[in-house]
Amino acid sequence: MKHAFVPPADLEPLVRHPKATGPGQHIGLHHSTCFGCGDDTPLGLHLKVIAGDDLSVTAQMPVVDWMQGGPGVIHGGVLSAAFDEVTGTAPLLIGAPVVTVHLEVDFAKPIPLGSTLHFEARILGKQGRKIYLAASAHLGDPEQIVASAHALFVTIDVQKHFAEHYDKRVIL
Ligand SMILES: CCCCCCCCCCCC(=O)SCCNC(=O)CCNC(=O)[C@H](O)C(C)(C)COP(=O)(O)OP(=O)(O)OC[C@H]1O[C@@H](n2cnc3c(N)ncnc32)[C@H](O)[C@@H]1OP(=O)(O)O
User: Fold this and answer.
1) Whose alpha carbon is nearest atom 22 of ligand 1?
2) What's the ipTM?
3) Atom 3 of ligand 1 has which residue's CA nearest to it?
4) Mean pLDDT across the stretch 76-91?
5) Which of 2, 8, 77, 89 could be disulfide-bonded to 49 (CB atoms 3.0-4.6 Å)?
6) Which residues form a coiled coil (predicted)?
7) From CA 8, how far away is CA 125, in angstroms rounded?
8) Which residue has the least CA distance to atom 28 on ligand 1?
9) Ligand 1, CB within 6 Å, residue ranges
10) Which ligand 1 atom is nearest residue 97's CA?
11) Distance (Å, rounded) from C-alpha 58 to C-alpha 154?
């Protein structure tokens, strides 16, 4: 698949945190009302991201009617949000809470309503606080990639980062 993103050649390698979620296990929620992974959002992606056995994760997402963009196919923004969530969860494997600073999505094929997207994301490495990831999605045949993404996240101090807006959080 053609894409423009070029990760730096001198990325530092990373290893799993000793307390990282085990392979095959669901990586815990960011929080229960997160649009990407929360259980308590009436409209949300409800993604369950599963740890791989290295620095990778997987997730599946049924493409349901409210996700429609063009007639009969997924909206590109919904797909981008799913990539954001899946790639943004993977750094928990190295014990790093992060936020997105850059996300690039390549849309290769139309993705029909009624299909199920299978995501895979992997950590490529880091440079200081910057964590680089690559991800792809298929509809059941891993050889047929329908979309791919590259993401750059920056590690944060969770308490400090969200302090200013925490009192405005939505509680359901
Ligand atoms: C309950 C648990 C929940 C845990 C939270 C989990 C939630 C995950 C949810 C899914 C993910 C999301 O949607 S997150 C929501 C969307 N994202 C955000 O709201 C982030 C908004 N941005 C920010 O708040 C800020 O930019 C920060 C905090 C990320 C970085 O600011 P900073 O701390 O001042 O650091 P700064 O020096 O600017 O940047 C650090 C390094 O990153 C580089 N950098 C920064 N931005 C970019 C960029 N767009 N493209 C390239 N590089 C960039 C800088 O050059 C620098 O590199 P160098 O000079 O060091 O080389």
Assistant:
1) 101
2) 0.95
3) 30
4) 98
5) 89
6) none
7) 9
8) 156
9) 30-31, 36, 84-85, 88, 97, 99-102, 128-130, 152, 154, 156, 158
10) 4
11) 21
Pocket test for ligand 1, best of 41, 126, 153, 154 (most atoms within 8 A of CB): 154
pTM: 0.96
DSSP 97-127: -EEEEEEEEEE-S--BTT-EEEEEEEEEEEE
> What number does CATH give the domain 50-164?
3.10.129.10
Rounded Cα gap, residues 25 and 35, in angstroms? 21
CA of 153 to the centre of ligand 1 (A): 6
pLDDT digits (tens, 9 = 90+) for 104-152: 999 999 999 999 999 999 999 999 999 999 999 999 999 999 999 999 9
Looking at this protein, which amino acid is placed at residue 150?
Answer: H
The closest alpha carbon to 36, from 114, 151, 123, belongs to 151
Residue 89 has pLDDT above 80, yes or no: yes
C-alpha 63/C-alpha 74 separation (Å) is 7
80 is written with which tokens?
């981008």
Please list the residues that pair with 49 across neighbouring strands: none
